[in-house]
Amino acid sequence: MKKVVFIIAFVGLSFSISSQNQQYTGALLWKISGKDLKKPSYILGTHHAVPVSFLDSIPGLMQTLTQVKQVVGEIDLLNIAKITSAAMKYSLMPAGYSYKSMLSDHEYKTLDRELTNHVGMGLDMLEQLHPTTIYTLLIQMICRELFPEMQEPDFEPIDMYIQKIARNQKKNIMGLETAEEQFEILYNTEPIETQLKTVLCIVKNMDLGLDALIELTEMYYQKQLDKMAELLIIIDDNVEDNDCTLSQSYLDALVCKRNANWLTILPQIMKKKSSLIAVGAGHLAGECGVLQGLSKMGYTVEPVVE
Predict the structure, then answer these.
(1) Which of 242, 280, 288, 296 qualifies as a cystine partner to 256, CB 3.0-4.6 A?
(2) Closest to 42 measured CA to CA, from 27, 57, 54
(3) Over 60: is that where the pLDDT of 2 sits?
(4) Which of 18-22, 26-30, 222-226, 264-268 shows the lowest per-residue confidence on average (mean pLDDT)?
């Protein structure tokens, strides 16, 4: 009996969970035209563990970035003040909670050991951080171990790089949601006890999780959006803890509900200005994916390929 274990997700890296539509795969850049659009807009799927040098292998991307009038991201990554404010509000452990009270002695020691191994600090130094903050930090550090290019001083995520180019080109930059809205979803959709179980799931099944991260990133390089759209990492009976399953409500909040919200505002955004919309690759494919949604709304959705 296989069990759903956990998703590899941190700010800017999230994936769809619905059934796939095979049409929307094989490309990372998609052209949106027709309906009431005078000029086409474009949607790019991003991945935070991939270096910006990979952008050169995406057909038409740099030309598109030059042609469009604005760049749209999940959030405005260049608004550092807003992001910092949201992080300060959400990242700390709420009053009345502690890792020693929520974890068994064995669980505490396991989490402390893995944090020390991968982050360089144990729970004694990180105990004031919310479980989702620790989760995000742990995933980011694991990615740095797996993908050495992330350790380069000048490494930056693709979507950040694209927004910086847009700023240099004097283009408008906007987000589909605010930093606070994104933090609210990540931190307050599930009870804190449930979020802590997700952290424990990672550390108890570290080897399986590392393999999944490598496979997921390879899918991105191969532009296999249909496979990335499954995003849930299915691990067999070797999984140590049966409590790793994430609730459907959380998965819906993380992806499908956000996609639905974006689809209510994207038509006006694209109608006003030709845009390059850069969001996590897993938001593109799947039954609740943005590409499928735009197609159902009457737009022509085409891959940009050589």
Answers:
(1) 288
(2) 27
(3) no
(4) 18-22
Cα(20)–Cα(286) distance, integer angstroms: 4
- Specify which residues 280 forms β-bridges with: 46
Parallel/antiparallel/unpaired status of strands 29-33 and 41-46? antiparallel
Question: What's the 3-state SS for 175-226?
Answer: ECCCHHHHHHHHHHCCCHHHHHHHHHHHHHCHHHHHHHHHHHHHHHHCCCHH
Do strands 275-280 and 41-46 pair parallel, antiparallel, or not at all (unpaired)? parallel
* Cα distance between residue 94 and residue 114, in whole Å: 23
Q: Domain range for residue 170?
A: 3-303
Q: Of how many residues is the chain composed? A: 306
Q: Average pLDDT over the chain, rounded to whole?
A: 86
| Other Cβ atoms within 10 Å of 99 Cβ, number | 21
User: Do 268 and 5 touch, CB atoms closer than 8 A?
Assistant: no
> Which pLDDT belongs to residue 257?
92
Predicted TM-score (pTM) above 0.85: yes
3-state secondary structure of 277: strand
Q: What is the pLDDT of residue 231?
A: 53
Rounded distance between C-alpha atoms, residue 234 and residue 244, angstroms: 11
How far is residue 296's CA from residue 81's CA, in Å, rounded to a whole number? 37
Total domains, the chain: 1
Q: Which two tokens stand for residue 282?
A: 């897993």
CB atoms within 10 A of CB 264: 9
Helix (H) or strand (E) holding 235: strand 233-235
Query: Distance between CA atoms of 277 and 9, rounded to whole angstroms?
Result: 20
| Rounded-to-integer distance, Cα 87 and Cα 97, Å | 19
Closest CA relative to residue 128, chosen from 83, 178, 93, 162? 93
Residue 64 corresponds to which amino acid? T
Q: What is the pLDDT of residue 132?
A: 93
Whose CA is closest to 68, among 175, 170, 156, 160?
Answer: 170
User: Of 93, 99, 92, 144, which is closest to residue 118 (Cα–Cα)?
Assistant: 144
How many Å apart are CA 117 and CA 145, to the nearest integer?
A: 11
